[in-house]
């Protein structure tokens, strides 16, 4: 069983290293890298999620054979990536994932983030990122850090802002599990994922900020194992 993972805004494939360590060898976690991030840092950023999804789908096509069992997982921005890739899987009649895991992102349009593509709003980009708990305290005032990562956050927030959940035409019977924190995304908004995953959609609540995975990595890994190991 392979677990194909899509990372958060500003993140790279190493975001999933902790989860990968726990899941191995029961499940093979494959964390994909966005263009402009991590080891692909010399590539141009995506202009929208459709461009991102096409790239990620091509990556998956090189990883997954028709005989492979696999699942998808997205964290925060990665949740949008995951559902858009799922759309392409359905469109191209590829073998479906056994399960989809989404975390830390409600199906809600964030139009205000489009403005973050403008450098004049860089202070807002910094504030949003810090408020989410994405930045260690030791790096908050580090100019070298922001020189590298500010353009990445700016680009990612911009395509999140362009994305319209109103246009997501998805009704799937693939089992879904949604991880969330009430402090980050209240249940009354996160449960809207049930409109898209109509057969079985479970919600698992944790305590913590947007990056509750940092404190609950072992518990999340156990939930994933419980849902995937039995699929084999």
UniProtKB/TrEMBL annotation:
InterPro entries: AB_hydrolase_fold (IPR029058), TEII (IPR012223), Thioesterase (IPR001031). It is an enzyme of class 3 (hydrolase). Keywords: Hydrolase. The keyword Hydrolase applies. Pfam families: Thioesterase. It comes from the Bacteria. GO terms for molecular function: hydrolase activity. Residues 2-226 form the Thioesterase domain. GO terms for biological process: lipid biosynthetic process. Its EC number is 3.1.2.-. Belongs to the thioesterase family. This is Surfactin synthase thioesterase subunit. It comes from Acetatifactor muris. The gene is srfAD.
